[in-house]
Amino acid sequence: AQQPVTVTVTGAAGQIGYALLFRIASGQLLGSDTPVRLRLLEIPQAVHAAEGTAMELEDCAFPLLRSIDIFDNASEAFSGTNIALLVGARPRSQGMERADLLEANGGIFKPQGEAINAGAADDVRVLVVGNPANTNALIAQAHAPDVPAERFTAMMRLDHNRALAQLAKKLNVSVNDIRKLTVWGNHSASQYPDIFHAEVNGTTGAKAVDDQAWLENDFIPTVAKRGAAIIEARGASSAASAANAAIDHVYDWVNGTPEGDWVSAGVPSDGSYGVPEGLISSFPAVSRGGRWEIVQGLEIDEFSRERIDASVRELSEEREAVAKLGLV
Ligand code: NAI
């Protein structure tokens, strides 16, 4: 039998937490032969709610679930953790400026980065889900100098999955027929879902669609604004699909991505594709031997170039803003 893996989930009493924890405990995060120890982090006011979720987890009698511990203190929550899912974040309240939002999140992700640095396992892998995810990941990373920088990632997999589903629907094919789709840039409305390199049954996504107006006026905005459309329809933000994407990201990170395909992941830039080094931006990425690698050498046409640059510019501005606040 395999050794148990310790997984810390922050914001455990929230919506995504509720959709995520049961899937982790059932074995979907790491694989069906890996036992899991769960460590939940919440703010003090939400600890009791987290206890309720823990009672339900217990009541599932999951064979792989070895333990559940609940904390309101980051140092304890990240002690010995192998996988850290940073879901809890400070949402933008009405009238809040971007600098205030970044600062409020700095107050969460700085101490969490420090706690990961101080106490997590040597092989710790971090996925930031809480928004603004890319820049929150950068803040946590900046406060964990002893952890390899590449272990800090931001969730772009929901955007990736949304793009896959929209393209499959348009072409009336299965998502299994589509490979090598990429969402580039920031997890925000500026993100760029790219179908020029995608492969669909022997041709490219763009050629299969053959409809530039759909691409520009329908596909790209539908994917980028899907989160808002879900809030409008459901009266609450995407939770189950976000949890699903977190599962996909970590599963692939640990177990590898399939040969002949890639996914979208927010990983530290090595300078590829003109993305300034160190920015945590979404790239086409494969996972090999437990590490993300940015797919190299893709030709970027002018249409894509403009859109990638715009999203990356936004990431650079966010980095400048948190640098001014002394957070990176
Ligand atoms: P939610 O509001 O239901 O839950 C958030 C939880 O985090 C709350 O229980 C809150 O008490 C907790 N929390 C706040 N500060 C904390 C701290 N310092 N330590 C530990 N826990 C803390 O929100 P929901 O729907 O679960 O979403 C969580 C985050 O995920 C939001 O920032 C949301 O914008 C983001 N998100 C990101 C997506 C992505 O694709 N990257 C997709 C969907 C949501």
From TrEMBL:
Q: What is its EC number?
A: 1.1.1.37
Q: Which reaction does it catalyse?
A: (S)-malate + NAD(+) = oxaloacetate + NADH + H(+)
MF terms from GO for this chain are:
L-malate dehydrogenase (NAD+) activity
Q: Which residues form the Lactate/malate dehydrogenase C-terminal domain?
A: 157-323
Positions of the catalytic residues? 187 (proton acceptor)
Residue positions binding substrate: 92, 98, 131, 162
Give the source's domain of life in one word.
Bacteria
Instruction: Indicate the transmembrane segments per the record.
Output: none
Q: Does the UniProt entry include the keyword Endoplasmic reticulum?
A: no
Q: What class of enzyme is it?
A: oxidoreductase
Using the record's annotation, list all stretches that form the Lactate/malate dehydrogenase N-terminal domain: 6-146
Database matches in NCBIfam families:
MalateDH-SF1, PRK05442.1
Q: Which gene encodes it?
A: mdh
- Annotated positions binding NAD(+): 11-17, 105, 112, 129-131
Q: Which SUPFAM superfamilies match?
A: LDH C-terminal domain-like (SSF56327), NAD(P)-binding Rossmann-fold domains (SSF51735)
Q: Which UniProt keywords apply?
A: NAD, Oxidoreductase, Tricarboxylic acid cycle
Give the organism, scientific name: Haloactinospora alba
Q: Which GO terms describe its biological process?
A: malate metabolic process; tricarboxylic acid cycle
Q: What does this protein do?
A: Catalyzes the reversible oxidation of malate to oxaloacetate.
User: Which protein, by its recorded name, is this?
Assistant: Malate dehydrogenase
Q: Which family does it belong to?
A: Belongs to the LDH/MDH superfamily. MDH type 2 family.
